[in-house]
Fold:
Amino acid sequence: MVSNDLLKGTLKTIVLSLLEERGRMYGYEITQEVERLTKGKIQLTWGALYPTLHKLEADHLITAEEVSIGKRVRKYYTLTETGNKTAREKVQEFLDFVTIMGQILNPKPSLNLG
Amino acid sequence: MAELTEKEIRRLSREIEKQGLTYTELQQELLDHLCCDVEAEMEEGLEFVKALEKVRKELGKDRIQEIQEETLLLINQKYRIMKKFMYILGMIAPAMLITGTIFKIQHWAGAGVLLVFSLFLLGAIYLPVFVMVKIRDTRKEGKKVNMPMYVFGLFAGIIFIAGAMFKIMHWPGAGIMIMLSGLVTVLIFIPILVVQALKDKENQVQNFTILIFVLCFVAITFMIYALRVSKNVLTAFSVATEGHIASTEIVEARNSAYLDRLQQSVPGSDIIQEQAKEIRSRSDALNDYISDLTADIVHRSHPDNLAAVDQEGNIAFDKLDNMDELYSVRVVIFGDEGIPGMGNDLQQKINDYKKFLSQNSDPALAGMINKLLDTSPRGELSWVQFCFLQAPMIGAVNVLTSIQSNIRVAEGEVLSQLLHRPLEEVVE
Structure:
């Protein structure tokens, strides 16, 4: 399991990159997808996911559309144009971060040709 | 895939509502999520009720409301608008307050409206909005909100601004409000602020600055209060005033006696009797006019002062409030905000009276009459300014009653001279 503290800062990136890949998703689907991709190592809670989704919507990075599914309404999210750009930036930023963290935590012996 | 019946969905919907979820957009979304969860469990072979129980257990009890709060906090547009509104108001209200103050100093009409409106904006809107925004910001940072600090600070602030507004508008109760806000600030708010400043390491500089400003503000307010006219001075004024009133009464009685004797002792001399009557009625008229001015000034100083003045204009000095009030004198004598001042009118009436007395008496009395009712300018100041500029209420009342006393003395001199003149004529 990945700790909530670590997850907190990256949740936006996760949601944005998932939406970038899959196009249109709803809340439950996102939690399931994350669980599947991480083989259960990351379990998104409602409490973390929905505030993030609504915040992204308020910031105009994603838009929502409501679709009737039987007797209930399902809210699908898609990236906006700015959202697309932000998704790419965020993913890149995170990858850079991981590389840098790797350098700190796992320094490889470097060849000294001097 | 198992699909929930309408009834089951309703059951879940009630479940969500029961948890206190009121934000409808989130309601529908969470309902869908909950349905999916339950459906997934049912897929595994559980019955609806069992599935629901399992899902519910996983969610924890108060989760739903928490999610709502967090969501609203993150996206709340109302909060953003509120913040923007606060900034705009923060610019407008002080600008208006300054404009109002300039108007007030210049005695232009509209000063009162500007001041009341800007103080209302500051106290009733800006301050509460600021506290709300501040509390939310603190919560958002994940820190504990020092609720007593905000509650007492807000209370003291609102009462203080209301007190200032009442003071400027001369409405009753201003003193109590300012006093109360001072007490709350010194006894409750400042101690809380000190503790907070010591505890909150992150905002220490900010809290310390606020503390210093609050302390300076309290000090200045109390200093202004300390600058008020001392009670002893006020008492001295009222003793002097009572002296004028007493002597006026005595001289009035004597003058009435003169009048009676004039009517008895000079039968046939209609002209003199008419003259005496005219003098009396002129004196009474001016005396009444000054009594009305006095009553007006006294009333304007404090609404309770209505009870301190009886129908005949007698003032109960021990019942007077706000004896050091400056504004009532300024309004009545010099005029303010569209109310015409009566000072020049008073001077004119005294001059007319003097002229009348001099015309109806021996020229030898003219010097004394002029001395008693002198209205000539004193140095740079006109007589009205000399008597009433920056005068406290009781000071003005003192001047007015002394004029009344002098009127009666002058009247008495003229009447007594009339009383003695016929005798001389008889001798001749």
